[in-house]
Amino acid sequence: MDLSSADADESKTLPFKLQDSGGSQSWLPPAFACLVNLSRYNKLVDKLLLAAPRGFCAGVAYAIEVVDLALKIHGAPLYVRHAIVHNEWVVKSFEERGVIFVENIEEIPPNSPVVFSAHGVSPEVRQKSAARQLTIIDATCPLVTKVHNEAKRFAAKDYHFIYIGHQGHVEAEGTMGEAPDRMVLVETPVDAERLKLPHHEKLAVLTQTTLSVDEVQSTMEVLKRRFPHLETPAKEDICYATTNRQGAVRELANLCDLVVVVGSRTSSNSNRLREVAESLGCDAFLVLSPDEIRPEWVRDYPIVGVTSGASTPESLVESIIGKFLEANPGAPVEILETVKEDVKFLPPRNLIQLAMAQS
Ligand code: SF4
């Protein structure tokens, strides 16, 4: 499977020619020239707009690289606590290489290596791992670790917290586990309005990294009004990748009749992309594979926007675009770039050295 990053040179990874948004010339193989006229008659999709940035973020690329290195060092079977990233294709590709994904540390034989997923774990999970004498390889995204560190720092100073996040999401469980007796979770502005909290002199707010920027802002406004002494983090907890992908889909939704978000239903940031597009009045759907593209999407929407969640391999985006192009091979595919990304996280040096020693 091609796990190439969206940051890669597009022309080298995509099986069709891309144009900058606003380009006037469409790429058209001569053999398909007659199909273009036919497609216009049938009102098939006229143009595809591809959001940039989309797809893999630095944290996902990092987590995948860490598991790859751990496999080189320890071989199979290799245990990973929770899906390394929320994408079934990535998980399956690792399972085929001997990775076993587990939810409970108790499922892992004592003295084995274990990789913690990009979403992070609570101190309780670390303690259980230590009790089983597991060798911990941490693939937590550094931007999630940053929020854990904020929680630890505030807790050490006797703060209580409001955590804006999704109930049951593994990242929320991990971060709230840093101070379980001091944190209360809210999901929406309505929750924030209803929240009943005893007075705490020291009160701070933290957020999950993959939420809707707009909704968090609304929730935050309610909380600040109700708890004027609430302290907010110096820098936004919602990560750069979530912010950038939501900004890009916003532009996309303004220009398209339909937005297709490629990603898993378990992926928080992919779901938020669909919601952002919908909130702007655009029809939007979340799909994981080309089989899910409905015939009417190809037939009824002249301009189709495509984007993908931070855990979606670019090969899936390519297959979705290919599906639309089957209906109208002459439709131009244009890139709509809203911001350039250059964030990269390098795996720990010792992991790289150990993996090199094995090869
Ligand atoms: S979405 Fe953000 S926080 Fe999550 S793995 Fe990617 S960079 Fe890290």
Keywords:
six-stranded parallel beta sheet, four-stranded parallel beta sheet, 359 residues, alpha/beta, binds iron/sulfur cluster, 13 strands, 14 helices, Cobalt-precorrin-4 Transmethylase, domain 1, Rossmann fold, disordered N terminus
**CATH topology (fold) name of the largest domain:** Cobalt-precorrin-4 Transmethylase, domain 1
CATH class of the largest domain: Alpha Beta
Named at the architecture level, the CATH assignment of the largest domain is: 3-Layer(aba) Sandwich
Count of helix runs: 14
Count of strand segments: 13
Q: How does the helix and strand content classify structurally?
A: alpha/beta
Q: Give the termini distance in whole angstroms.
A: 22 Å
Series of secondary-structure elements, N-terminal to C-terminal: HEHEHEHEEHEHEHEHEHHEHEHEHEH
Q: What's the main sheet like?
A: 6 strands, parallel
Q: What is the gyration radius calculated from CA atoms?
A: 22 Å
Strand order of the largest sheet: 1-13-2-12-10-11
How many domain regions?
A: 3
User: Going by CATH, what is the homologous superfamily of the largest domain?
Assistant: 4-hydroxy-3-methylbut-2-enyl diphosphate reductase, catalytic domain
Helix content: 40-55%
Attached small molecules? iron/sulfur cluster
From the spread of the alpha carbons, the general shape counts as flat
Multimerization state: single chain
Mean pLDDT: 90
Percent of residues in beta strands: 15-25%
